[in-house]
Design goal:
This protein is mainly beta and 120 residues long. Helix content is 0%, strand content 57%.
Length: 120
């Protein structure tokens, strides 16, 4: 579970009967629930950007997606890590994403470019 800094969004990733993983966001003020479709595999982490516009989800297979909280659609991705993606954090300006996946990787979101890897 994750909550946006401005209190607008609450996001959950949950397993349904051990088969399907669901990523959902509740817009607190309107009580509208959005389901984000497309991320497959066991989700290990979710993170909301500081400006409350982006959502990152990471999985045991090392797949990381970046979503628009407004539309519920993927913006970029998938980013593919060498290991499972079990922690992710956005930079303050929401332009980069750091993911811990055995190594620490830093991605430029718009270009989907890996800019730094702690194993390098």
């Amino acid at each position: 579970m994750a909550a946006s800094r401005d209190g607008r969004w609450i996001v959950t990733a949950s397993e349904d009967d051990g088969v399907l993983w669901e990523l959902k966001a509740l817009e607190v003020k309107t009580s509208i629930m959005k389901t984000y479709e497309g991320h497959s595999g066991d989700m290990l982490c979710i993170s909301i950007s500081a400006d409350s516009k982006l959502l990152a989800s990471g999985s045991i297979g090392g797949i990381v997606w970046i979503w628009s909280l407004e539309t519920g659609k993927p913006l970029t991705g998938p980013f593919t890590s060498r290991y499972k993606a079990d922690v992710s954090r956005f930079s303050q300006n929401s332009r980069k994403l750091a993911a811990k996946s055995g190594a620490i990787e830093v991605w430029v979101i718009q270009e989907q470019i890996l800019t730094w890897n702690s194993e390098s």
